[in-house]
């Protein structure tokens, strides 16, 4: 995965350094120092959040390519865990009271231990380091406690997510409940710019959509549900990606062995009627065909634990399509699970825009930091405000203003026709100029200029028609379209 450049972040770090040089120790200096420390590491922090049992930790493991996050019920699921690449496996416990981090043994093979020798209420988060090339240096993943896991942890869960630059929202059963969850995140995280600019949705349980049905039909149904969910969350998430997380974790974490591949090959060679009967449900898979399909019960249970019925059906189909060796089978299952698509979207929508996302989060924190300035520190605070205003006019930062507009629309304070709400969403979530204008990728420059010119005129009319309260947001949209238009001349 490509690494991002951080010119804007370096400018914010410079602001922090100048302010700290002029400040004495105190709350204002501490707040500015915290921002500088956060920017010291050039990585985008991506939180994985969602409700209890949404499949967050399984998704984290699939993204990491290694089983580092706990997927069972352990006390360490009550605290956030950050995952970073390092040449050795170790875990650091960070505390709420600011005492130095403590090192604790990782799980055997690396990852979050089942328990830590501290009360979870003392802990701010864990940092899990592992010898893992898949983590890379482009982003840091954060696994967060589930919403409603323990009611007292709701504020903790929100505080953890608030420290991230972007969010992957795990949704096992998409619908109004997930929209409400995201709006709840937004309400709690005012000032954090949570929107389609930095949120990806993931439909995590596509393997449960159609047991016993055609695999292509399951995929089509998953895509339809994901598209409907994204439509309900216009302005709140950039896109909803369907992923079979159990299958993704097994394939990407290389949990399948040669013995498993051999057993799956036997299944692929079995009589189709017998195989269909076996794959009707878990109980049938364990009892049907024991005398005609030579895969023992213990191996069948292992395959169920690793793949579930959906994954076994995908594996058999992949073998039928030519994935005969273990490496080819793993690659095929990664593609079929949807994890490859998610990794592509993570790169396109979040990592490629990491500089602006991280700079915006840091600038928001600095705006809050100036509230700690004493009377004697107002000169430094005023200079910092001026620098923040200046940097806020940088073209790359306008995306964050679009995020504010999307938040206002989602909250009902910016009334927009559906057509214009969709235009705002594509402008903010688009990666290329064609996507931002809602045109095909092969659109010509003349087509782009023509369409963007139409959008400028449309939003200028909308700007004049809206009440003053909403006009500020529509002005931003119109100005961004204008900037795109002039960039094409």
TrEMBL record:
Residues 46-204 form the Dynamin N-terminal domain. InterPro entries: Dynamin_N, Mitofusin_fam, P-loop_NTPase. Keywords: GTP-binding, Hydrolase, Membrane, Nucleotide-binding. Its main location: membrane. It is found in: Membrane. The keyword Nucleotide-binding applies. It comes from the Bacteria. The keyword Nucleotide-binding applies. PANTHER family: SARCALUMENIN, TRANSMEMBRANE GTPASE FZO1. This is 50S ribosome-binding GTPase.
